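Teaching note: in complex prediction, the entire set of molecules is handled at once rather than each chain in isolation. The prompt given to students was simply: 'Predict the structure of this complex.' The entities are:
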Amino acid sequence: MSTEAVATAVHESNATRAPLRISGRSNWLSAGRPVRARQSLSLRDDAGVVSYVPGDLTLTVRAGTPLSEIERVTREHDQWLPLDPYGSNDGTIGATIATASAGPLATHFGLPRDLVLGLEFVNGRGDVVRAGGKVVKNVAGFDLSRLLTGSWGTLGVITEVTLRLYARPKLDRSVVVRLKGSEKESTAFLRALLGVPLNSYSLELLGVSAAQALGLGVSRVCLIRFGGNAAAVDAQLRELSSLAKSEEVETPVWDRLRNLEKDAGAVVRISGLPSTFREVSASMLSDEFPWMIEYINPVRGVLRLMIHDSGDAASDEESVLGLDPTLPNQPMVFEKLPAEAWAEIPSAVSDSLSRGIKKAFDPNNVLNPGILGD
Amino acid sequence: MTQPIPRAQPAVAERLAEIVGERHVLGRQSELLVYNSDGLPGYRRQPRLAVFPGNREQTVEVVRLLAEEGLPFVPRGAGTGLSGGALADDIVVIGLHRLKQIISLDVANRRATVEPGVVNLRLNKHVAPHGLLYAPDPSSEAACTIGGNVAENAGGPHCLKYGVTLNHVLAITVLLPSGEVVELGSKVGERDGYDLRGAFIGSEGCFGIALDITVKLTPKPQTVRTLLADFMSVDGAARVTSAIIASGIVPAALEFMDGPTIRVVESSIYAAGYPKDAEAILLIELDGLEAGVNADLETVRHICLEGGARNVKVARDDIERMKLWQGRKKAFGAMGRLAPHLIVQDAVIPRTRLPEILETIHAISAKYGVVVCNVFHAGDGNLHPNIAYSADDPAESGRVHKAMTEIMRACIDAGGSITGEHGVGLDKMGYMEAIFSETSLNAMCELRGVFDPDRRANPGKVVPIHACKEWNAVASARAAGVAAREPRPLETEPAHPVAQ
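The expected output is the structure of the full assembly:
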């Protein structure tokens, strides 16, 4: 598969009015709303590094390149792409950028929109478009890279991505703090933690089910990752030890956390002002339902909640929608739901600007129709 | 004081005056002179009218009136831009500097909502007592506005570590050219859907006017250390820059000044104590947790000395630090000592290409007999080659422009971009086709068309109009006698000719 092949497929799709389901390695086809397309267009074979000059700390890859391959290539030069979306590293960079998927490292390194320097995509008419560039700073023209990031393949098929890389930290350490005390004590710890000068790469507060699933015990836990030079990491570990007892855990714990979502029947992300989460997060991480896994990022202000199939779609939907009375009017993003449940959820692209953009970029609605509720 | 209103355009000017008050509408050519250029004085365009709304409601009313009349306009902040982007060629300028309220500050959640006319440095002074800062710090921070920063996706020295405006804006309330008001992004969380906030940032006034902007604030670092390394060769400093970036340390800032720049700054009131005999200096700032910064400081010092630095001096205190920075931030101002006009480029190149590109720039300046000063964000590979010259001397102007075109060409050939933070505006529009294909430019036109179907907001900037397929289709349809809505100029006497 090449850019030209993608353009040809899109041209044909326009001619026959047969819409396309765009996919990477098909790991997450259950994410998003059902797509009204019989034909699929997979980018999985369009993989590989296009250019990589380690000294520039930038990397250009084809969209079908798995995250694991990017990890391998950059590791050879002691660099990395600090982007760890939930799920696994088996997914492609194209799908990750198209869905703007991020994970725990977003705490320090930002979201996909902060890491993408440029894109090549094929729009819904089959035109090849290049956005941004290959340098780390660029304001030439209107920002189509941001527009395409998180557009779920509905505005264009991403065929190539240029990313900002970072040097791997000299030290990369993760610790767990077990929160065995009362909710009040947990909240006090969290407040203190966020008040001291720490610069954690990742920081997640895990509910009991999540902690159990990771073999971290039977209480709520706070999982923290520190990176940097030895002096910086040591100073942070010392700072932390003045607040609570912590235990070191192996870095792969983060991969296991990301993998918890693999079999979930529903995944919902609730975001809000970080302060809201700081104050109520201990109580929000309910210990009652073993099929419900929750964790909170109190720095970003994001709660992720997943429900493993209880076999009853209606009750799953109810538990998701009836979610949390303590958080009214928080933006909720539904990443994965039982198909029937989507009807209740308003589309995030129903405003007139979004509709206008969709119409301009994909006039015949041949790219992933329906995935965003359009 | 009463303002004369252009005779043939009484209706619009009067109605604008009814909205904002007579003294906030300017129509006399002499008064409008102030608005006929931005920070690049080589470009001049005379606006027809300038209107200065005093609050959000007035701004909405002004834009709605212009929409009703089908009149184009150019939004303008402080006019410090360096791309000719805020120039209005015989159309209305909407100046937004009176919208200068800091609407809210949420210390616990590290965010603030401000009106577009709030000056960057004022926001920083406002949040500093709470241990916070607004990270993007263009060198014009003392004058430029947050609204202008959003329009240009402004950067600054500290963007190396902290990112540009795009990375620090959470939400924007946008007044579309049609007069409709929309919320982009989210003030309270992360939303899904298209990143319209991202698309609006850097749209150079072509997508509408930001009525309020919610920005992310950053905690002040525990420690800041600033180093000055001086070199007897440009090449040495360039190689050290590449070596620092390759080492993995992300300095808060890594700035480069060459010999000619150093000497101009040192003979100006902004003298910072740079060694006048050096051929290049690097200004390197490290910040973060104290223990980590001290360790990085030693590594950076070592890289500099290994790479041939003559001296590496670490600022002892904040006063010394500020002095070192002042020389850098006011360098463009100091250029005024050399000649009345300044041309500044903003190309970005891959960071490993720095040594060879600086050599190429040197060769080009010798070829055309011009003095290029280099003062730029080396860590990002964001060059600012600039030439002080007299635009009134046609021969000199010609050589300067030829040299600049050749420099730009070299940067593009190195895989770079034509602009890193100043924007395309008028100045770099001619280069857009050198880096973007026809279909890419057309996609940009289409995006603009969604925000501004009538193309009335900042017309004639960023994307060359002939690159827009659909618009050309409309134009030919019109030519064929089919009715189509076109922006029309103000129906008054022809514009006074303005020196280009």
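Point out the following to students. Chain B has four domains: 10-95, 102-219, 222-330, 436-479. The CA atoms of residues 176 and 454 of chain B lie 11 Å apart.
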